[in-house]
Amino acid sequence: MAPHKPEIMSPAGYWPQLHAAVEAGANAVYFGLKHFTARAKVGFTLGELPEAVRTLHQRGVRAYVTFNTLVFNHELAEAADTIATIARSGADAIIVQDLGIVRLAKQVAPDLDVHGSTQMSITSAEGVALAQSFGVSRVVLARELSLQDIRAIRAATTCELELFVHGALCVSYSGQCFSSEAWGGRSANRGQCAQACRLPYELMVDDQLRPLGDARYLLSPGDLYAIHQIPEIVEIGISALKIEGRYKDADYVALATRAYRKAVDDACAGRALSLTAVDELQLEQVYSRGLGPFFLSGTDHQRVVRGRAPRHRGVCLGLVAGVTADRAIITPSPNHLLSPLKPGDGVVFDAADRRSPEEKEEGGRVYQVIPRNGTVEILFGNGAIDFARVRPGDLLWRSHDPDLDRIARPFLEPAAPVARQRVTVRVTAHEDEHLEAHWALEEDPRTAVIVRTDEPLRAARNQALTEELLRQHLERLGNTPYELAHLELAITGRPFIPTSQLNQMRRAAVEALQQRQAEVPPRMIHQPRLQIGRAREAEPTAPQLHLLVRTPEQLEAAIQVRPASITLDYLELYGLRPSVERILAAGLTARVASPRILKPAEQRIVHFLLKLGCPILVRSAGLLHALRDQPHPPLIGDFSLNAANTITAGTLLDIGLTRLTPTHDCNAAQVVELAQSAGAESIEAIAYQHLPVFHTEHCVFCRFLSSGTSYLDCGHPCEKHRLALKDGSGRAHPVMADVGCRNTVFGAEAQHAAAHLEEWLNAGIRHFRLEFVHQTTGQTRDIAESFAMAIRGRLTAAALSQRLKQASPEGITEGSLFIPKDYLRLPVLN
What we know:
This protein is an alpha/beta fold. It contains 24 helices and 38 strands. The strands form six sheets. It has a ten-stranded mixed sheet with strand order 30-29-28-27-26-25-37-31-36-38. Strands 1-2-3-4-5-6-7-11 form an eight-stranded parallel beta barrel, surrounded by six helices.
């Protein structure tokens, strides 16, 4: 039995990319609007949406609209209206990040399919099941999963699964990156990623600078390339293969789509991959930071981040062997044999091992190429290159190949449709009856039309209708998006039909098919019940302080302060039980923090946490779902569940949470608004922390402090050393590993809510959490005691800020809590 053929799903930033994807053979195209999309710089207007959907549908391509941002309370009504407009346009599905928006979409347009975005951070069957329970029909799995993980998830769910197979990788789990929000007030979860991962960093090991040679971009991954994994992916039973790149050019979309179209067709037909080495090199040439399967093929922390450059490089064609006053002499690489350097190529000389990241690289257009004794001499236009800045040992990259423009042009400027839809035509022709032709698309037999002759057929005097004659005229589909795949003719007698009438019927059938494909399906649209009012009133209680600690030294300080609870967030699981017992012996409430990510093989962690019998700080939606139907201790939802509006907060509270921490995308005023609408008694606000800006599968400890590939052979440097990444401003951002060997990069400065505590207290918030990273015993105690005094009214905001500054040598900031001057505060809702 032939395997199910997955969709090739291509990106479109705008019309050129959309058309390129169609012509190159995409089954589906995903694109965004100007708002509620994770790529805010590109997209279609609401007015252009119907035409975009119609254009795709008339070519047999499905249209998926990205709605993958977090949504704030004041945007819910606009979000509902936009969802209704998308549904009316005929779009096949929306791709959603926010769990509350999933619920809203099913209210507004129950017939519209909803796909769970990769920004839902789904890494387990439990995470899939949670999304599915709210009406999600397809889930885009996290890019950090191996094929083994994916196979396990596939075996445990009936939900459609979608994978990224090509393009840029985020170093952080999608939906779990707060660097743009922390450092620039631009939320990645709101479509405004500032790409802090692509900046240069220096490595600080135990507070000392560790030179790393040419590795400068320590958080900048290569680009995903899964062509050679396609047969296994198809065999697993994945529904859709997604190509990243809504910011990419149309030639990238065309060439990537064409390559994966070939790979999937080959795999489903049982053929070996027909892509040549030159074809594969073209994919590297059109856009690449270095290609590889990376996490799909299993853990190898030495491969994901090379660190030499953060941007498109293209193809490495050799090494500089010598330099004269007017030319460079190159020792060619094996790539040069497949695709030789030629005049007109754009190249760049890479001297990353001796040049600072801020320095401009030398590069330009090649004017002449001279092969000589196993080397290649390249010359440039007068003054184009400063050869004094080019040295032996520099790498030579071809960053642009004009030949690719020619290869991509048929998909970008087609004289006639390149990708065609195969049609089956069944013709009935009997004497004295109307000829009837039934045209149906092979990919979608439901899309069918019937055309008939105006008059009954008469008996032929000379040339009767034959299958050969019929095929000859029905195959003439040159400028249409169709091709004749199968023809069946049922004939009685010797009927005659003029060839002009056959041509007319063919044109009528094509027109009818186009109209049929453009039809917008009838959909129910409802006015949603947006209940964004004040939740139930709770009995007034005294403010409570909750401390989260990561070291035994911090734990001792926390016990001295005697807060309402102490949460343990340790690297080593087995250190938890004695620390829990230590807290309980002091007469305090112990809590434990779950990992943010749980993969299929990590369920032992869940069982271990449950055995401790403590309240759990839940950081994974999959864990929340796994605990729904079994006895469990109190659950507190953390910021990583990304609750930004009342619907999302209410959804999470309804399925088992006692309290919830708002996402870090909320500023201090939005925390108040969420408390007013979702219930202040349900909110646990973080008042002090080093913001967890990146949460990544890439282990910085393993990559740069060992030669190992995973925890099996890395020597566990995370247990022996303190690590930080120093940015261009001199700030050192701490890095810590968790129980799954994932890393969190924390903001260097401590983020605090001193200026907002009074407003939070007036809004009814009574639970405040302080989180510590590398603070000493004394710093932990001083910070906690200062907040304890402040929430009881015994310390002013100014005095608290001063104390925090003294106890935080790295500095303090409002960070993501900062309220812009033009922020429009919502009225208190009753």
